[in-house]
């Protein structure tokens, strides 16, 4: 077989990009590098039977009683995490809010939807007891204040909480959960 300019060009235009795609598509996502912080957290199906952590990569956030005051973190989460992983088939964001706050949750959803496709955002109402039980199952050091925390949590396909390894530079920083109000904190583990 003779190597002509025509064959070289065809190879570079069609075969080489296909090979690159196949190599890159077999890679693993960044969240698989994170260690398990808490095994077998309470499944979100305890709050909404139509939703589950099993088989999904889930980012969980707690919207709280005063969603309007806390909305900045939800926009950061949307921009830095959701938009980056929306193409991943089994990815979802679970936004838990107190029962009776449906109108406020709808307003937050409408504001975020102005910037993105909300197909993988799940807004789920829960009782105070269910929200506290779910948060407590994460074994996080932060406390829910008015059913809100500025932390977002990553739950893997097995229902285990994933978090960054111990922070040797800042020993007082909690490793479970990501500060939604800090773009740098949300991006830290995505950069690796």
Description of the structure:
This protein has 192 residues and is an alpha/beta fold. It has helices at 5-25, 67-85, 102-113, 128-137, 183-188; strands at residues 36-38, 57-63, 91-98, 121-126, 148-155, 161-162, 178-179. The chain has one domain: Glutaredoxin (3-Layer(aba) Sandwich). The protein has five helices and seven strands. A hairpin with a 5-residue loop joins β5 and β6. The radius of gyration is 20 Å and the shape is elongated. The protein starts with a helix and ends with a helix. 28% of the residues are buried.
- Low-pLDDT segments: none
Structural class: alpha/beta
Share in β-strands: 15-25%
Major beta sheet, specifics?
7 strands, mixed
Helix content: 25-40%
Order of helices and strands: HEEHEHEHEEEH
Write down the overall geometry: elongated
Count of discrete structural domains: 1
Number of helices: 5
């Amino acid at each position: 077989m003779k190597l002509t300019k025509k064959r070289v060009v065809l190879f570079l235009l069609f075969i080489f990009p296909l090979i690159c795609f196949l190599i890159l598509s077999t890679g693993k996502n960044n969240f698989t590098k994170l260690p398990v912080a808490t095994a077998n957290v309470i499944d979100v199906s305890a709050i909404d039977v139509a939703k589950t952590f099993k088989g999904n990569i889930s980012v969980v956030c707690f919207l709280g009683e005063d969603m309007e005051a806390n909305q900045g973190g939800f926009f950061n989460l949307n921009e830095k995490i959701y938009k980056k992983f929306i193409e991943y088939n089994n990815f979802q964001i679970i936004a838990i809010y107190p029962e009776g706050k449906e109108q406020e949750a709808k307003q937050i959803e409408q504001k975020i939807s102005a910037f993105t496709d909300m197909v993988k955002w799940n807004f789920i109402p829960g009782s105070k007891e269910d929200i506290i039980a779910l948060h407590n199952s994460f074994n996080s050091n932060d406390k829910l204040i008015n059913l809100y925390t500025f932390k977002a949590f990553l739950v893997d396909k097995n229902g285990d909480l994933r978090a960054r390894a111990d922070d040797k530079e800042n020993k007082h920083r909690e490793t479970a959960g990501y500060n939604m109000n800090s773009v740098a904190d949300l991006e830290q583990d995505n950069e690796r």
